[in-house]
Batch of 3 targets.
Target 1
Amino acid sequence: GGLVAFPTETVYGLGADATNGDAIARLYATKHRPLLNPLIVHVAEPVHARRYGMLDDRALQLTDAFWPGPLTLVVPQRSDSPIASLATAGLDTVALRCSAHPVARALIAAAGCPVVAPSANRSGGVSATLAEHVAADFDGQDIVVIDGGASPIGVESTVAAIMANGVVLLRAGAVLVNDIAGVVGAEHVVDRRDRTDDAAPNAPGQLTSHYAPQAPVRLNASQVNAGEALLGFGVSMPPTTGRALNLSASGSLEEAAAHLFAHLRALDAMNPTAIAVMPIPDVGLGQAINDRLRRAAAPTA
Ligand code: TXA
Ligand code: MG
């Protein structure tokens, strides 16, 4: 019935018993999350997903290839599913994920129930990749935080919906669109990640403004203005007066993803007039990084 924050390989999650509507109501309230934005149901073992969702051949090909791991699958919900309707925002689909993180899997197995876990940050803000981030966001709230060190991937799971017309990519993550195409065939993949239509978001949570620090974010910066902090990438950082962090001096996208949210939080804490972000190559994991940065830079409502 309580709330437990725990590490996954992507980001920290704020967990509750997925069958307990009261706990889930508390989870939405604690995060200040809109009730229409459904949650991911986490399972300890891949086979447990079948208790809640209907997995067709394509879904099973994808779970065989990528679970446990950073892929969330949206599938039709079973009519006898015990998941509380608040968790799915009343939809007839359910988002399922089996994390590869040993602490996440041990927690879910010990709980003996499916666990809903959105990212463990205040709704709309920067995600948490360290236990300290969670503690800072939910200071004084009645939650338990399990400290399992830094989340190694650093950006949220890829979200893909299994639909009649194919596998629809809803959110970019560490499982790349090419990885999915390699398993189900490119002709069965529909890429809808780039839509930023708040009137009809493709995944309810993929709003244009998301992951936003307090400071405005300025993308594709080649120089730093007075008062700004710099989020750099690669060997050649523009000169600054000191408020600068590099996502990866060697130009590694994996390292950049792992540092993204921690660096955004650290620069934001310096109260700059804006955070200037150097360009990140839009390939591989760079697509997930750029998706988060575009939403972080979008005007907040
Ligand atoms: O890496 C992750 O996925 C992390 C860790 C903790 O597992 N969790 C996470 O949860 O990022 P959250 O709530 O921040 O993002 C879940 C996304 C939201 O965009 C939500 O709208 C979408 O998944 N989603 C959940 N259920 C859905 C459904 N039935 N149909 C479409 N989208 C759904
Ligand atoms: Mg989130």
Note: Residues 118-119, 127 surround magnesium ion (ligand 2) (CB under 6 Å).
Target 2
Amino acid sequence: MKALLFAFPGNTALRDALCTRLDLPAGDLELHRFPDEESLVRIATPVDGRDAVLVCSLDRPDRKLVALYLAATALRELGARRVLLLAPYLCYLRQDSRFHSGEAVSARPIARWLSSFVDGLVTVDPHLHRIHDLNQVFSVNSVSVAAAPAIAAWIRAQLPRPLLVGPDSESAQWVEAVARAVPCPCIVLSKQRLGDQQVRVSLPDTAIDRDRQPVLIDDIISTGRTQIAAMQALREAGFGAPICVAVHAVFSNDAEAAIMAAGAARIVTCNTIAHRSNAIDLGAAIATALHDLLPH
Ligand code: R5P
């Protein structure tokens, strides 16, 4: 029997594209928020022993996780064979260590909790730094889709002489993979985070071709302060306006406007979180990963 794909609000476009690519039916999931902000979930399509895929990108996770848990529980009680989670953006991975005494480490407990109510996971470029593989923290089969090939294809098609720039050492894994695939040169800057909204970035001490189009690449844009500090360092070093590329368009508060005001030529993101900057479609790569988890 074919799997059913259920979309959380904001995930319908990606879910519909996946249904078309994989020739799978969509299921109806209704989500109601009570005035006190509790969630009521209703599965409005019979699941009849099929696999059910919940499509729910986990930006703004505190508003979504309880409803996701309730949806997975309801699907199981209603007879789903397996409940799989497609979370193109996976939350709570950056706090993978106790940076200050007494802090809660979020990556492992959240992964343990998700593993307790889904049977498998597909995500895109999870922010793995001190954890090297998702399967170290998830006890269910977890598949990571790489955005690098699609980002590289976009850069190759759009920009004749790019110089890829990673704003910090953590971005090296993504920037170097994209640079290899374009192919084109890349540099990685050094970042010091002084607070949620405050970062300092410096350029490496190497000869760099300043006539190329700088393309800042990071996995996440949240406050945008990393991009803004990197843009400032590039400008001081004599570069032109950069194009800011990110996998995950988290964009908290004024991030998008602040990046444009700081002089970005353009912001381009992948469609892991629905946003008007989405220009790089990961539908084909996500469909392949999901197909491999589903019964044939
Ligand atoms: C952190 O290591 C990530 O790779 C990003 O650089 C970071 O999440 C960006 O955050 P923000 O936009 O708040 O500076």
Note: Residues 127, 167-168, 170-171, 199, 218-226 surround ribose-5-phosphate (CB under 6 Å).
Target 3
Amino acid sequence: MPKIVVLVSGSGTNLQAIIDAIKTGVLNCKISTVIADRDCYAIERAKAANIPAYIVERKLERANLSQTISKYIDKDCDLIILAGFLSILDGNFTKSWENKIINIHPSLLPKYGGAGMWGLKVHQAVLANKDTESGCTVHFVNDEIDGGKIIHQERIPVYPADDAQTLQKRLIQVEHQALVLAIKKLLSESKNIC
Ligand code: GRF
């Protein structure tokens, strides 16, 4: 069975969507490890699902942090998922997992990506720009922040009454579906190659 590792920093609703998709048979894989760069609610979700969870010190220098994370990842891991992971991984790490490490971002990349664009800031930028649609992107991770090849995008309308919070709340539901769909696609493609 394919093995995946999930990296988290926050509430972990995307992690929960993966856990639930495995439970209901939508995804045929096992989460071998959850790694967080800070104490966060996602760790509680991992524990509740009996998944080994580790916290790494986010204040470590970038290469050091990536090396520490590597120690918790089996060499035969099929996919690494950044599900709300806020630390930046170093180029050696992303290169060594090329095409096997993915991220979910709450905008239609390449719009509203890059350093500092996370959380409500993304939705505030969408509203400030008077965009009529937003969405989320699942993409491969390379050494450019939010810059890897796009795997999947989902769109939602922006309503005149929206504020950053309502937009975030509506989009996160769609993110969960997009992430599960992208994982399913990648795992089935890698099975076909093997
Ligand atoms: C999501 O909006 C995701 O797109 C972004 O960080 C947030 C994580 O939310 N990268 P959660 O921790 O999965 O609830």
Note: Residues 186 and 192 are 10 Å apart (CA to CA).
